[in-house]
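Quarterly update from the structural biology core.
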Amino acid sequence: MSWSIKVPSSTSNLGAGFDSIGLALNLYLELHVTEADQWEFIASSACLEGIPTGKNNLVYEIAEQVATQYGRPDQMPACRVEMKSEIPLARGLGSSATAIIAGIELANILLDLQLTDDDKLQIATDIEGHPDNVAPSLLGGCVVGHYDGKVSYTQIPVKGVTFVAVIPSFELKTKDARAVLPDQFTFKESVQASSVANVSVAAICQGDWETLGEMMEKDPFHQPYRKALIAHYDELYSYLNEGAYGVFLSGAGPTMIAVVDDKKVFSLVKKWKAEYPEYQWLPLQVENTGSFVEQIREEIKK
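Predicted structure, tokenized:
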């Protein structure tokens, strides 16, 4: 028996939406799962070179954690898992979140747990600690989430804009990016920060990308601190803002994303590529369907 699992990537921390606002994007992690004699994970794309091939693979570790949570740690049948990904690792595009969702989906199908989307999201957020990457990868679209032991969320439709990812050649680990953040804000700073985040959400709801861009510039939570880890940040930020609605640091970085009008994206990206050929430029669309699981019916040969 075989299955196909497809999980979209995500971008998060849209301006002041730190740990709470994320978007699913049309880059994917894909798994082809077939029952086998032993567990084996096979990388079939460059983005996954060097990943663990046995039970120390993150996808398996998450699946085993879910199986244990539901009291069935020894009941998952061994599988051969071919993995293909378009998502660069440690670049702020949710590669680890896609693996978490894939692991939950894997346990769900192998053990027939019949988990709902809310069940899956609760498990994923408990593992990740915040919903901004896992929620859009599971559900699709733009998701605004809150987590205090229980996850709450709402989805917002997004259209008319392209998210242009500017991907450098170096990695930035999330733990390193979190280490530079402040431990606390004053009450006055917190009120200011929450007002920026509130207007950001309202702007997304209205499709008011210019206002969202203004709020992205006022983000007090992470961009002012993390940009020090990215040597080209200030130069590229100013350059991209000349043509984009706004620019934000995707996830923990180092990828930067420019929010661009669909009608202007082709000409802008052509110009940007010519000016900065050392970066990878990916015009991405919002993926509205979230993770997808399909059982593959094997044809019976006569």
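Residues 187-206 form the longest helix (20 residues).
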